[in-house]
Predict the structure.
Amino acid sequence: MLRLNKYIFLFLGIFLSLSVFSQTKDELKKQKSTIEKEISYTTNLLNKTKANKSKSLSYLLVLDMQISNKESLLKTLNIEISLLGNQIRKTERSIIEIQQSIIDEQQELVLLKSEYAKMIYACFKEKGNRNDLIFIISAEDFNQAYKRMVYLKQYASFRKNQVDKIIESQKNLAIMEDVLIKRKNQLDLELDSKKNLIDVKKQELNSISDTKQEKQELVNNLSKSEKVFKKQLQDKQKTAKALDDEIRKIIAEEIRKAREEAEKKNKGFALTPEAMALSSEFNNNKGKLPWPLEKGVIIQGYGKQKHSVLAGIETFNNGIDIVTDENMNIRAVFDGTVSRIFFIKGEGKAILLNHGEYFTVYSGLKEVSVKVGDKMLAKEKIGIVFTQEIEEKTELHFEIWKGYDKQDPSKWLFKAY
């Protein structure tokens, strides 16, 4: 029974090993699927603006994101190949162990059968010369007769045990052979999977190389228009300053209103209890907020950014820039109130939502679906994104402020970093 348990535990160990590997593999598949979807989406965006790519900085930024995603996919593939390689080596070791166990079990079975055959032959040979009953009653005294009875009983039990051992050994062989077949089949599947993954990796390496070459050619072409990009950079800096000034003015007005309201009610704090509760809820949802667009890719993050074409030039982004499809709906990322709707030259309209001591800014709207004072719910539509026809750029600029302090939106939106 102990030997049988040993092989059952061996089988269970193999099964658990497969289960753990399967879980890790599933997690990698999900991660890979997410990256592949983003690659597919950026590919579609690139295809839409390909005709105008020779003068499009937006195209270059999306291309950068495409390269980044492909490199992330390559890292995921490398991890998957490495894990699969480890699993293959474990499987091969397991097969060798099972094969050796089968050999050992077969040798023991041969020995058991041989011993049993000798015992049966000896028993048959003695049977003709011995009657068990006469053997017992011919004893000299009762004590000797009892010992002979015990001997015969033990002999019969030994014969039965030999039969049981042979049956158990045959069962063990059947179990191990079944496990071996399963492991060999599993190994074949793992080897095929590894070959496929290696083929995909080679394709991705070629794809990254092609995309990087396209990027370099585009940078070379765009570098010839340095004056144009310097002018664009100046315009963008003016736009960013205008937006920053307007946001600060609006926030100052909101804080002043809140303070006056509190003073009227003889309260010792600037925010109403409702606003404080809203601020607390907003803060508790850091990293969980929905995106301001249903579809999109972040092409420029928060903070210092190196210019894609002009060497040695850095800019500071007060929020994040999300490229998306034309006419995409823009939505509130959290419950709040529309504080202001204003216009930024060259960038379309902008909306500022109040969430207590937090504010969210949505810049780059073609159409606005709300009015000042409207109460908004999370994911509720506030407008439609603006498309710049010259560059064929459909992009939303999104910011989060806590009072006068800018926040990194990537740390607040769900899986945005």
Observations:
- The chain has two domains: 2-223, 226-411.
- Helices lie at 2-48, 57-127, 132-137, 142-223, 226-264, 273-284.
